Structure formats: C-alpha cells, structure tokens
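Input sequence (154 aa), recorded before submission:
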Amino acid sequence: ENAVVGQPFGNLRWLVCGGCGGVNTGVDMGQVTRLCRQEPVRLDSERLCALYDHLGSHQAETLIARAVEDIALHLYHAQAAYHLGRRDGIARSARAVGFVAAQIGLTTLERIAGNLHDCAVDGDPVALGATFSRLLRSSERALDLVWDMQAPGT
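Predicted structure, token format:
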C-alpha cells in the first residue's frame, strides 16, 4: 500500500494511505471508520454537443484532449502546492481546473474545484484536505470518462 507522510499545514502530522486516500494523524483514536465515497461524475452533454456542433468533430476532439491535459497539469500543480502548504497555489490551480472543466462540460469537477478554491481561501486545513482528496478522486474518474468517449471506434 502506497503512503505519503508529511506536514503540509501547521503541526498536524498526516499519513495518506493508498486505496481510498484515508488519513491517519498518528493519534490513537480507538475505532476508526474509513469512508470511501464515490460520487457520480456528471457530464453536461449539451455543452459537449455544442462544442462538436460549433467546432466540428476534429477540432472539438483536439480541444477536449488539450483540456484534459490542462486539467491534469493544473492538478499536478495543486498537489505540489498542497504538499508545500501553499494555499494560494492551491486556490489558483483549483480555479484553473474549474475553468477548464466548465469548458468541456465536466460539471462535477467544476463544482468540486470551486469548493477546493473556497477551502484554500478560507484556510481550514481539514476541509482543504478532504476536498482536495475528493477532487483527485473525481478528476481521475472524469478524465477517464472523457478519454473513453474519445477512444477510436466508440
């Protein structure tokens, strides 16, 4: 099981485990229940259809591929900022993820990115960690969904 140990905010020692991303603070908490949520990924099909109608199939697929790459890059920057404890960088990256997600109809990802931005601005480390984990889980499913839609022969 992969694990990452660090201290991104204050003196809170955290351990993020592989699998569902459970967090262990290193404190004996008795019985701990790990909650693994998988919320559905919502895709605005009208927005996608409008892209294809306006740009044509080839240009729309090119734009979507670039958008997926941009989202992945902004998520990478958000992770780096998170591990450095840079809330400003997290907020900036989250806003960029939301903007790009909105362009290609990834409404769930857009909403969660907005939530992450708000958590970064508010400065609540618990909410920030939980929302960031949620964004990473949802982004993986959303990007897989978009790539699967573009797979040849589908």
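Checked by second reader. Confidence is low (pLDDT under 50) at residues 1-21.
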